[in-house]
């Protein structure tokens, strides 16, 4: 069983490795579903972990249809990732009609080689999952991250199982979204997945002693500036144990 942890900062990456993860998906901006992290963060993570590092290539939150300027930025970010010796990138571009933008996805995949390339949950926003499956295979993606076109993977297990069946080894299908200690056994047993993606989120308290009580969350979530998102290594270990128990 391959365990991939989505992380949003340097500490989380180190904690994911401590818990025995096989791979991380390194992102920024969890509130927007993940965007491309900075050069400095990628470089520092790469220098301090030995597991595989896959980097999110997404120039902004929102939809997955990008203009020419954003597409150029994605190409530049892929070049940056190659220079920093990461192991893979995670991306996806859609057409307005809900189909995969095969032309531009293929261009990015070819540019990224020899890095591995995962299609992220843009896949879950496509009009037809089976059409999108074949399109992902055609353009050269190595893997699809999917919740089975549902909010959480446990709700999409039937579709995920069918995707794995139809893929027949031509591309890896990795369930993600809402995968936790309460759902992982059902997801793995019903889909036959060999890889899983989750966050194992925990929060550390800020080391700040002085706190301006007049400002909470810098205008967003109350007190968020004093809650530091990280990964619980013990949750990573437990999730592996639960997932692998199902496959024995």
Automatic annotation (TrEMBL):
<dbReference type="Pfam" id="PF03932">
    <property type="entry name" value="CutC"/>
</dbReference>
<protein>
    <recommendedName>
        <fullName>PF03932 family protein CutC</fullName>
    </recommendedName>
</protein>
<dbReference type="InterPro" id="IPR036822">
    <property type="entry name" value="CutC-like_dom_sf"/>
</dbReference>
<comment type="similarity">
    <text>Belongs to the CutC family.</text>
</comment>
<dbReference type="InterPro" id="IPR005627">
    <property type="entry name" value="CutC-like"/>
</dbReference>
<keyword id="KW-0963">Cytoplasm</keyword>
């Amino acid at each position: 069983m391959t365990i991939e942890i989505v992380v949003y900062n340097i500490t989380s990456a180190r904690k994911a490795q401590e818990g025995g993860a096989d791979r991380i998906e390194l992102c920024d901006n969890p509130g927007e579903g993940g965007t491309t992290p900075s050069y400095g963060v990628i470089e520092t993570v790469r220098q301090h972990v030995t597991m595989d590092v896959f980097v999110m290539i997404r120039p902004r939150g929102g939809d997955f249809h990008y203009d020419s300027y954003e597409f150029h930025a994605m190409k530049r970010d892929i070049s940056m990732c190659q220079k920093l010796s990461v192991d893979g990138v995670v991306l996806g571009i859609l057409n307005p009609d809900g189909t995969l933008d095969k032309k531009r996805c293929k261009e990015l995949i070819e540019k990224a080689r020899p890095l591995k390339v995962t299609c992220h949950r843009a896949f879950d926003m496509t009009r037809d999952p089976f059409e999108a499956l074949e399109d992902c295979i055609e353009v050269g993606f190595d893997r699809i991250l999917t919740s089975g076109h549902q909010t959480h993977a446990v709700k999409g297990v039937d579709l995920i199982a069918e995707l794995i069946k139809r893929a027949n080894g031509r591309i890896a299908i990795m369930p993600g979204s809402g995968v936790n200690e309460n759902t992982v056994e059902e997801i793995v047993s019903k889909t036959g997945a060999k890889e899983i993606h989750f966050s194992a989120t925990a929060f550390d308290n800020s080391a700040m002693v002085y706190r301006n009580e007049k400002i909470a969350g810098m205008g967003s979530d109350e007190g968020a500036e004093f809650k530091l998102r990280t990964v619980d290594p013990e949750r990573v270990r437990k999730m592996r144990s639960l997932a692998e128990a199902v496959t024995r």
